[in-house]
Amino acid sequence: MKLMKAGTLILMFALLINVLAACSGGNSNQPAANNTNNKTDAGTVEPPASEEPAEEPKEEEPVTKVMDFGGKPLRIGQWWGMDAYLNDEEKAKQKKVEEKFNTKIEYVTVTDTTARLITSSVAGEPFADIVMIPLREAFPKLVVEGYVQPIDDVVDLGLPAFADNLVTMTNGKFQGKQYGISEPYAESHGLYYDKTLLQKLGLPDPYELQEKGEWTWDQFVDMLKKIKAGGKVPLHVDSEPLLASILIYTNEGKIEDPATNKIALDEPNTMEALQFFNDLYNVHKVIHKDEQASFGDGGIAFVNGYRWDNLGYVKDKPNDIGYVFFPKGPKATEYVVPYDKMNLWFIPKGVQNAEAVLSAFTELFEFEVKKGKDIKLQKEEPNMKNKESLDTMRKMFDSTYKIINYQAYVGLSDVVEEAFKNIASGKESPATAIERIKPMAQGAIDVSTKK
Fold this sequence. Notes:
Residues 1-21 form the signal peptide. This is Extracellular solute-binding protein. The protein is of the alpha/beta class. The chain folds into two domains: 74-185 and 342-367, 3-Layer(aba) Sandwich (D-Maltodextrin-Binding Protein, domain 2), CATH 3.40.190; 189-340 and 386-448, D-Maltodextrin-Binding Protein, domain 2, CATH 3.40.190.10. It has helices at residues 2-26, 32-35, 88-101, 113-123, 135-144, 160-163, 166-171, 195-200, 206-211, 217-229, 240-249, 268-282, 310-313, 354-364, 369-380, 387-397, 412-425, 430-448, and strands at residues 74-78, 105-109, 130-134, 173-174, 177-178, 189-194, 233-236, 256-257, 262-263, 300-306, 321-324, 336-339, 343-346, 400-403. The strands form five sheets. The protein has a four-stranded mixed β-sheet with strand order 2-1-3-13. Helix 11 packs across helix 12, helix 12 crosses helix 17 and helix 15 runs antiparallel to helix 16 (387-397). The longest helix has 25 residues, at 2-26.
């Protein structure tokens, strides 16, 4: 009996071991046959293979975000009634945008977009979803006081509609944040000149000097003195402060430095420009305000003018009229466009669907840079007298803009323009005028930037 019990125990023990082995094999993640084939030539065991081969990761398809206004209008704030100036291509784009974004385009025309933005925002809702605002009114005031919003985190600024438009991407930025945008920027500011008059006086063509890189202050003042000697008005400008600003920026100078919020009127390049400004008025005496003389019929040789001024200065005039950059100062390395009328589009604070607004807006108008500038130039062709002037205008579109923006600071224009007028009249020298106003000018900047 004892032997039987022992045998029985041994048999039961063997069966128990088999059962345990079977259970252990059943919990394995792969068939037992695979285990015998996982040895490499070196005799090491490879990790167990999965039962099914791993799927190749699928490449994600790009997702096109559809932005729906839910039937609400896209309101565009401006002051000139832009809907009256839409061409057929822009009208067709508008219909597509309205269908795609489930919206209706509304052009909200007001006299003063900045004032309306402030009052409507205070009342609870901005009057438009995107608003055209003069740069000098936007920075720093509307940013510091919280009326416009940055767009860096709203849209991808690397998209061609934004990134390729360097003029607005540079000048629409304030304190490291992007606020303003526009279609491809195509504006100009230079000198219209009476080619017919200069030819009669035996003077060189400024365009030819420009193309040779020889259109400089020295050439300019020499020409102005000869025009004066010929009994004609050498140069007419809109105002003394504007001419002073033009000369400062064409000599690589500054009035203020927006990066540091410091007045820069006493820097060497600026002081050199103000001395030349003084000499034009008080030494050479080549700037006159002859209200009887008119440009384009032989009375005035040069006038400053913007792109749109060709309607008054060029079109339908009897004489041949040219257009050139302002001449380079001694410190300048290139021709530039000193510009005091830059306007950009801004998204007001409080607009909730800013991404949809910007996406729709960039499809309403031509944002491809070259095409946009070509369209603008084609519109100006009937208003210019010669291809050289159109060539200059196109070069201005592609050149460096020097933004004259001191009027953006509360009270700064009063003290700066008083100094410029005193210099022009001979009441103060450049050094005396700038030394006198510098503390007040810096104070105006500090107040405006809440320093």
